[in-house]
Amino acid sequence: MDLHQIIYTSVCAEGVSYLDFLDLVKTADRNNKQRDVTGILAHGGGKFLSGLEGPTEAINQTFSKICKDRRHSEVQILSYDAVAERAFPDWGLFLINLDQPHHKRRGWPKGKYAPGEELFFPDDPRLAFALLWDLRSAWKPKELPKAA
Q1: Sheet order of strands, 94-97 included
Q2: How many domains does the chain have?
Q3: Contact assessment for residue 96 and residue 135, using Cβ atoms and an 8 Å cutoff
Q4: What is the CA radius of gyration of the chain?
């Protein structure tokens, strides 16, 4: 199978609530599974960092829709590469909201990407992938919080 992975950042639009995030993830999870796309979405400090994987055409179509979504702006692709296997195979889309204290405590690698506990999404593609990997590794699929 021809797999691609895209990692991107964006800025959250004003007025987007946690319930909006849950709705976004629920819809994206369902749609992604239908397209054989998997991924992770980290949110914190008004920014998003996401990694998506799947068949090339499905990734291109999904990302085109993402770019048109008014819930965020300043979409910046950090990497877009062919991959041999998925790094985030467990979810259609999983949200880790680092503004939620229990998510940050569990998944934020203190001091690894920025001094202290500062929330920071790197612009370097390798560091961004490593951060998403660390966040993914902090969660086991059977322990996922339930969306409303």
Answers
A1: 72-83, 3-12, 47-55, 38-44, 94-97
A2: 1
A3: yes
A4: 14
Cα 88 vs. chain centroid, distance in angstroms?
A: 10
Backbone torsions φ then ψ of 90, nearest 5 degrees: -85, -15
Determine the Cα–Cα distance for residues 53 and 75; give it in Å rounded to an integer.
17
28 located within any domain: yes
The enclosing domain of 59 has a CATH number of 3.30.70.100
What integer pLDDT is reported at residue 125 of this predicted model? 92
- Where in the sequence is the domain holding 64, given as residue range(s)? 3-143
Q: What's residue 91's pLDDT?
A: 85
pLDDT computed for residue 86 by the predictor: 94
Separation CA 1–CA 5 (nearest Å): 13
Residues of the chain with pLDDT under 70: 1, 101-111, 113-119, 139-148
- DSSP-derived secondary structure for 89-107: TT-S-EEEETTSHHHHHHH
Which pLDDT score, from 0 to 100, does residue 119 have?
Answer: 67
